[in-house]
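Escalated from tier 1: beta-D-mannopyranose holo job.
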Amino acid sequence: MKFFDEPEIGELTSSPVIKRFEKNPVLKASDVPYKSDLVCNAGVTKFNGRYVMVFRNDIRVDEYTVQEGVSLGIAFSDDGLKWAIQPKPCLDVHSVGESGEFLNTYDARLTVIDGRCYMTFGVDTRHGVRCGIAVTDDFERFKVLSICTPDNRNFVLFPEKIGGNYVRLERPFPIYGRPGYPERFDIWMSDSPDLVYWGNPHLLLGVEDVPFSNQKIGAGPPPIKTSKGWLTVFHASDFSASRGRDGYERSWKKRYSAGVMLLDLADPRKVIGMSKKPLLSPEVPYETAGGYRNKVVFPTGMILEEGGEVRIYYGAADTYVCLATAQLEDLLGLCISPRVSK
Ligand code: BMA
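Tier 2 regenerated the structure:
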Protein backbone atom coordinates (compact mmCIF):
# COMPACT_ATOMS: atom_id res chain seq x y z
CA MET A 1 0.00 0.00 0.00
CA LYS A 2 1.25 3.45 -0.84
CA PHE A 3 1.87 5.48 2.29
CA PHE A 4 -0.23 8.40 1.12
CA ASP A 5 -2.52 8.15 -1.85
CA GLU A 6 -5.29 10.61 -1.11
CA PRO A 7 -6.17 13.01 -3.94
CA GLU A 8 -4.67 16.48 -3.65
CA ILE A 9 -7.01 19.30 -2.64
CA GLY A 10 -5.91 22.10 -4.97
CA GLU A 11 -6.56 25.79 -4.53
CA LEU A 12 -8.60 26.95 -1.54
CA THR A 13 -9.99 30.40 -0.76
CA SER A 14 -11.60 31.89 2.33
CA SER A 15 -15.33 32.44 2.54
CA PRO A 16 -16.50 35.91 1.48
CA VAL A 17 -18.22 36.27 4.89
CA ILE A 18 -14.87 36.48 6.67
CA LYS A 19 -13.00 39.75 7.17
CA ARG A 20 -9.41 39.86 8.39
CA PHE A 21 -8.59 42.58 10.93
CA GLU A 22 -6.77 45.29 9.02
CA LYS A 23 -4.17 45.71 11.77
CA ASN A 24 -3.20 42.02 11.92
CA PRO A 25 -1.28 40.57 13.61
CA VAL A 26 -2.81 41.38 16.99
CA LEU A 27 0.23 39.82 18.68
CA LYS A 28 3.80 39.18 17.53
CA ALA A 29 6.97 37.96 19.24
CA SER A 30 8.55 41.41 19.45
CA ASP A 31 5.64 42.50 21.70
CA VAL A 32 6.57 39.88 24.31
CA PRO A 33 8.62 41.13 27.30
CA TYR A 34 10.60 37.86 27.70
CA LYS A 35 12.36 35.49 25.31
CA SER A 36 10.12 34.85 22.35
CA ASP A 37 10.63 34.20 18.65
CA LEU A 38 7.12 33.17 17.59
CA VAL A 39 3.67 33.47 19.13
CA CYS A 40 0.51 31.74 17.92
CA ASN A 41 -2.53 29.56 18.71
CA ALA A 42 -4.07 31.60 21.51
CA GLY A 43 -7.06 30.73 23.67
CA VAL A 44 -9.14 33.89 24.08
CA THR A 45 -12.20 34.60 26.20
CA LYS A 46 -13.97 37.37 28.08
CA PHE A 47 -13.74 37.02 31.84
CA ASN A 48 -14.94 39.51 34.47
CA GLY A 49 -15.29 42.34 31.96
CA ARG A 50 -11.97 42.01 30.15
CA TYR A 51 -10.53 39.94 27.36
CA VAL A 52 -7.94 37.32 28.30
CA MET A 53 -5.54 35.56 25.96
CA VAL A 54 -3.20 32.63 26.63
CA PHE A 55 -0.81 32.22 23.70
CA ARG A 56 1.85 29.72 22.67
CA ASN A 57 5.36 31.14 22.97
CA ASP A 58 8.09 29.47 20.88
CA ILE A 59 11.85 29.89 20.64
CA ARG A 60 13.79 29.48 17.42
CA VAL A 61 16.64 27.03 18.00
CA ASP A 62 18.48 27.27 14.67
CA GLU A 63 17.92 27.94 11.00
CA TYR A 64 15.48 25.02 10.70
CA THR A 65 14.16 24.28 14.16
CA VAL A 66 11.73 25.86 16.56
CA GLN A 67 11.12 24.70 20.10
CA GLU A 68 7.34 24.82 20.32
CA GLY A 69 5.34 25.54 23.44
CA VAL A 70 8.25 26.76 25.51
CA SER A 71 5.75 28.66 27.61
CA LEU A 72 2.16 29.86 27.69
CA GLY A 73 2.11 33.64 27.68
CA ILE A 74 -0.80 35.60 29.05
CA ALA A 75 -2.23 38.96 28.00
CA PHE A 76 -5.22 41.13 28.91
CA SER A 77 -7.15 43.65 26.87
CA ASP A 78 -10.08 46.04 27.21
CA ASP A 79 -11.09 45.79 23.56
CA GLY A 80 -9.67 42.45 22.30
CA LEU A 81 -7.45 44.35 19.86
CA LYS A 82 -4.68 45.98 21.91
CA TRP A 83 -3.11 43.55 24.36
CA ALA A 84 -1.06 44.08 27.51
CA ILE A 85 1.25 41.08 27.80
CA GLN A 86 1.97 40.16 31.38
CA PRO A 87 5.63 40.10 32.48
CA LYS A 88 5.67 36.35 33.16
CA PRO A 89 4.13 33.32 31.39
CA CYS A 90 1.42 31.31 33.15
CA LEU A 91 1.19 27.61 34.02
CA ASP A 92 4.87 26.68 34.17
CA VAL A 93 5.13 23.19 32.64
CA HIS A 94 7.27 21.97 35.53
CA SER A 95 4.40 22.59 37.92
CA VAL A 96 2.18 20.33 35.82
CA GLY A 97 3.87 17.02 36.52
CA GLU A 98 7.00 15.25 37.63
CA SER A 99 10.13 17.07 36.67
CA GLY A 100 11.64 15.81 33.42
CA GLU A 101 8.48 14.08 32.23
CA PHE A 102 6.56 17.12 30.98
CA LEU A 103 8.40 18.96 28.23
CA ASN A 104 6.24 21.86 27.04
CA THR A 105 2.69 23.15 26.97
CA TYR A 106 0.90 24.81 24.07
CA ASP A 107 -2.30 25.52 22.12
CA ALA A 108 -4.51 26.59 25.04
CA ARG A 109 -8.24 27.13 24.75
CA LEU A 110 -10.21 29.08 27.36
CA THR A 111 -13.82 28.37 28.28
CA VAL A 112 -15.86 30.09 30.99
CA ILE A 113 -18.26 27.66 32.68
CA ASP A 114 -20.44 28.78 35.60
CA GLY A 115 -18.22 31.81 36.27
CA ARG A 116 -14.88 29.97 36.37
CA CYS A 117 -12.30 29.95 33.60
CA TYR A 118 -11.12 26.55 32.36
CA MET A 119 -8.04 26.12 30.23
CA THR A 120 -7.25 23.11 28.09
CA PHE A 121 -3.66 22.72 26.83
CA GLY A 122 -1.49 20.27 24.94
CA VAL A 123 1.47 18.78 26.82
CA ASP A 124 4.37 17.00 25.14
CA THR A 125 5.76 14.41 27.53
CA ARG A 126 8.49 11.79 27.38
CA HIS A 127 5.74 9.18 27.00
CA GLY A 128 3.57 10.82 24.36
CA VAL A 129 1.37 13.81 23.59
CA ARG A 130 -1.23 14.47 26.26
CA CYS A 131 -3.83 17.13 26.91
CA GLY A 132 -4.74 18.75 30.21
CA ILE A 133 -7.62 20.66 31.77
CA ALA A 134 -6.97 23.33 34.40
CA VAL A 135 -9.12 25.88 36.17
CA THR A 136 -8.32 29.39 37.35
CA ASP A 137 -10.18 32.29 38.92
CA ASP A 138 -7.38 34.87 38.75
CA PHE A 139 -4.99 33.75 35.94
CA GLU A 140 -2.19 33.49 38.48
CA ARG A 141 -3.01 30.19 40.10
CA PHE A 142 -4.10 27.31 37.87
CA LYS A 143 -5.29 24.02 39.32
CA VAL A 144 -4.74 21.12 36.94
CA LEU A 145 -7.82 18.87 37.08
CA SER A 146 -6.91 16.10 34.67
CA ILE A 147 -4.41 15.10 32.00
CA CYS A 148 -5.35 12.36 29.55
CA THR A 149 -3.38 9.34 28.39
CA PRO A 150 -1.34 9.69 25.16
CA ASP A 151 -1.93 10.37 22.32
CA ASN A 152 -4.68 12.95 22.38
CA ARG A 153 -4.77 16.71 21.89
CA ASN A 154 -6.93 19.69 20.90
CA PHE A 155 -9.30 19.45 23.85
CA VAL A 156 -12.05 22.04 23.71
CA LEU A 157 -14.70 22.43 26.41
CA PHE A 158 -18.29 23.49 25.73
CA PRO A 159 -19.29 26.55 27.82
CA GLU A 160 -22.00 24.70 29.75
CA LYS A 161 -22.98 21.23 30.86
CA ILE A 162 -25.20 19.41 28.38
CA GLY A 163 -27.48 16.64 29.62
CA GLY A 164 -25.92 17.06 33.07
CA ASN A 165 -22.32 16.52 31.95
CA TYR A 166 -19.34 18.54 30.83
CA VAL A 167 -18.62 17.98 27.14
CA ARG A 168 -15.35 18.19 25.26
CA LEU A 169 -14.16 17.90 21.70
CA GLU A 170 -10.90 16.01 21.33
CA ARG A 171 -8.53 14.68 18.71
CA PRO A 172 -6.89 11.32 19.39
CA PHE A 173 -3.99 10.24 17.14
CA PRO A 174 -4.57 6.64 16.06
CA ILE A 175 -1.37 5.45 14.38
CA TYR A 176 -1.60 1.65 14.27
CA GLY A 177 -5.33 1.59 13.59
CA ARG A 178 -5.16 3.56 10.34
CA PRO A 179 -2.67 1.68 8.14
CA GLY A 180 -1.65 3.54 5.01
CA TYR A 181 -2.21 6.98 6.46
CA PRO A 182 0.57 8.68 8.37
CA GLU A 183 -1.76 11.22 10.03
CA ARG A 184 -5.43 10.62 9.42
CA PHE A 185 -7.06 11.96 12.56
CA ASP A 186 -10.68 12.91 13.27
CA ILE A 187 -12.67 14.94 15.79
CA TRP A 188 -14.15 13.01 18.69
CA MET A 189 -16.31 14.03 21.61
CA SER A 190 -16.68 12.72 25.15
CA ASP A 191 -18.34 13.77 28.38
CA SER A 192 -17.65 13.87 32.09
CA PRO A 193 -19.48 14.47 35.37
CA ASP A 194 -16.49 16.28 36.91
CA LEU A 195 -13.88 17.18 34.22
CA VAL A 196 -11.65 14.38 35.59
CA TYR A 197 -13.30 11.14 34.44
CA TRP A 198 -14.19 11.12 30.74
CA GLY A 199 -16.25 8.61 28.80
CA ASN A 200 -18.90 7.98 26.15
CA PRO A 201 -16.45 8.57 23.28
CA HIS A 202 -18.14 9.42 20.02
CA LEU A 203 -16.75 10.09 16.54
CA LEU A 204 -18.13 13.54 15.71
CA LEU A 205 -16.57 14.34 12.35
CA GLY A 206 -14.24 12.26 10.17
CA VAL A 207 -11.67 13.58 7.71
CA GLU A 208 -13.75 11.96 4.96
CA ASP A 209 -16.59 14.39 5.80
CA VAL A 210 -14.46 17.46 5.05
CA PRO A 211 -13.88 18.10 1.34
CA PHE A 212 -10.99 20.50 1.98
CA SER A 213 -8.96 18.02 4.04
CA ASN A 214 -7.13 14.91 2.90
CA GLN A 215 -5.24 14.45 6.13
CA LYS A 216 -6.38 15.45 9.63
CA ILE A 217 -8.93 17.67 11.34
CA GLY A 218 -9.18 18.91 14.90
CA ALA A 219 -11.30 21.09 17.16
CA GLY A 220 -10.64 24.84 17.09
CA PRO A 221 -12.11 27.31 19.61
CA PRO A 222 -14.83 26.52 22.17
CA PRO A 223 -18.22 26.36 20.41
CA ILE A 224 -20.68 29.27 20.71
CA LYS A 225 -24.29 28.60 21.73
CA THR A 226 -26.83 30.03 19.26
CA SER A 227 -30.56 29.53 18.81
CA LYS A 228 -29.79 27.31 15.77
CA GLY A 229 -27.19 25.09 17.42
CA TRP A 230 -23.58 25.08 18.64
CA LEU A 231 -21.48 27.10 16.20
CA THR A 232 -18.22 25.16 15.95
CA VAL A 233 -15.04 26.05 14.09
CA PHE A 234 -12.34 23.45 13.43
CA HIS A 235 -8.99 23.17 11.67
CA ALA A 236 -8.39 20.93 8.68
CA SER A 237 -5.07 20.10 7.07
CA ASP A 238 -4.30 18.94 3.58
CA PHE A 239 -1.09 17.33 2.43
CA SER A 240 0.59 17.60 -0.93
CA ALA A 241 3.68 15.58 -1.81
CA SER A 242 4.51 18.30 -4.34
CA ARG A 243 5.03 20.92 -1.64
CA GLY A 244 8.52 21.46 -0.32
CA ARG A 245 10.18 23.66 2.20
CA ASP A 246 7.78 26.45 3.14
CA GLY A 247 9.02 28.24 6.20
CA TYR A 248 12.00 27.44 8.41
CA GLU A 249 11.53 23.69 8.49
CA ARG A 250 13.41 21.56 5.97
CA SER A 251 10.13 20.28 4.62
CA TRP A 252 6.56 21.46 5.16
CA LYS A 253 4.02 19.75 2.95
CA LYS A 254 0.84 20.69 4.81
CA ARG A 255 -1.64 23.53 4.63
CA TYR A 256 -4.05 24.32 7.46
CA SER A 257 -7.49 25.84 6.83
CA ALA A 258 -10.50 26.37 9.09
CA GLY A 259 -14.00 24.98 8.66
CA VAL A 260 -17.34 25.74 10.30
CA MET A 261 -20.17 23.43 11.38
CA LEU A 262 -23.28 23.50 13.51
CA LEU A 263 -24.02 20.91 16.21
CA ASP A 264 -27.43 20.12 17.64
CA LEU A 265 -28.12 22.17 20.78
CA ALA A 266 -29.54 19.38 22.91
CA ASP A 267 -27.36 16.64 21.46
CA PRO A 268 -24.08 18.05 20.09
CA ARG A 269 -23.12 14.56 18.91
CA LYS A 270 -25.25 15.38 15.87
CA VAL A 271 -23.69 17.54 13.15
CA ILE A 272 -26.66 19.40 11.69
CA GLY A 273 -24.75 21.31 9.02
CA MET A 274 -21.26 22.01 7.76
CA SER A 275 -19.88 24.29 5.11
CA LYS A 276 -18.26 22.22 2.39
CA LYS A 277 -15.81 25.03 1.71
CA PRO A 278 -13.25 26.47 4.12
CA LEU A 279 -14.23 29.39 6.31
CA LEU A 280 -10.65 30.61 6.33
CA SER A 281 -7.74 29.46 4.22
CA PRO A 282 -4.22 30.91 4.17
CA GLU A 283 -4.06 33.66 1.58
CA VAL A 284 -2.43 36.86 2.83
CA PRO A 285 1.33 37.38 3.34
CA TYR A 286 1.36 36.95 7.14
CA GLU A 287 -0.30 33.54 6.61
CA THR A 288 1.63 32.38 3.57
CA ALA A 289 5.20 33.71 3.72
CA GLY A 290 8.03 34.52 6.08
CA GLY A 291 6.81 32.40 9.02
CA TYR A 292 7.89 29.19 10.71
CA ARG A 293 5.38 27.01 8.85
CA ASN A 294 3.68 28.90 6.07
CA LYS A 295 0.14 28.32 4.82
CA VAL A 296 -1.24 27.76 8.30
CA VAL A 297 -4.34 29.25 9.90
CA PHE A 298 -5.15 27.64 13.25
CA PRO A 299 -8.19 29.09 15.08
CA THR A 300 -8.29 28.68 18.86
CA GLY A 301 -10.43 31.57 20.18
CA MET A 302 -13.95 32.71 19.25
CA ILE A 303 -16.11 35.37 20.89
CA LEU A 304 -19.67 36.45 20.04
CA GLU A 305 -19.95 40.21 20.53
CA GLU A 306 -23.12 42.17 21.17
CA GLY A 307 -24.64 43.03 17.80
CA GLY A 308 -23.79 39.66 16.26
CA GLU A 309 -20.13 40.02 15.29
CA VAL A 310 -18.08 36.87 15.84
CA ARG A 311 -14.37 37.36 16.46
CA ILE A 312 -12.12 34.46 15.56
CA TYR A 313 -8.54 34.50 16.86
CA TYR A 314 -6.14 32.28 14.98
CA GLY A 315 -2.48 31.41 14.70
CA ALA A 316 -1.00 32.47 11.34
CA ALA A 317 2.02 30.58 9.93
CA ASP A 318 2.70 29.38 13.52
CA THR A 319 4.23 32.85 13.91
CA TYR A 320 1.53 35.41 14.82
CA VAL A 321 -1.79 35.72 16.61
CA CYS A 322 -4.32 37.19 14.16
CA LEU A 323 -7.99 38.11 14.17
CA ALA A 324 -10.79 37.68 11.65
CA THR A 325 -14.47 38.57 12.04
CA ALA A 326 -17.78 37.50 10.55
CA GLN A 327 -21.45 38.08 11.29
CA LEU A 328 -23.12 35.30 13.25
CA GLU A 329 -26.00 35.12 10.72
CA ASP A 330 -23.53 34.61 7.87
CA LEU A 331 -21.71 31.83 9.72
CA LEU A 332 -24.98 30.07 10.46
CA GLY A 333 -25.97 30.53 6.82
CA LEU A 334 -22.80 28.78 5.68
CA CYS A 335 -23.69 25.78 7.83
CA ILE A 336 -27.37 25.47 7.06
CA SER A 337 -27.73 26.78 3.52
CA PRO A 338 -28.91 23.85 1.37
CA ARG A 339 -26.34 24.80 -1.29
CA VAL A 340 -23.37 24.09 0.95
CA SER A 341 -24.44 22.00 3.91
CA LYS A 342 -24.02 18.23 4.25
C1 BMA B 1 -0.57 21.07 14.56
C2 BMA B 1 -0.21 21.59 15.94
C3 BMA B 1 -0.39 23.10 15.99
C4 BMA B 1 0.26 23.78 14.80
C5 BMA B 1 -0.16 23.12 13.51
C6 BMA B 1 0.51 23.71 12.30
O1 BMA B 1 -0.27 19.71 14.46
O2 BMA B 1 1.13 21.29 16.20
O3 BMA B 1 0.18 23.58 17.17
O4 BMA B 1 -0.12 25.14 14.77
O5 BMA B 1 0.15 21.75 13.58
O6 BMA B 1 1.91 23.58 12.38
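The two ends are 30 Å apart (CA to CA).
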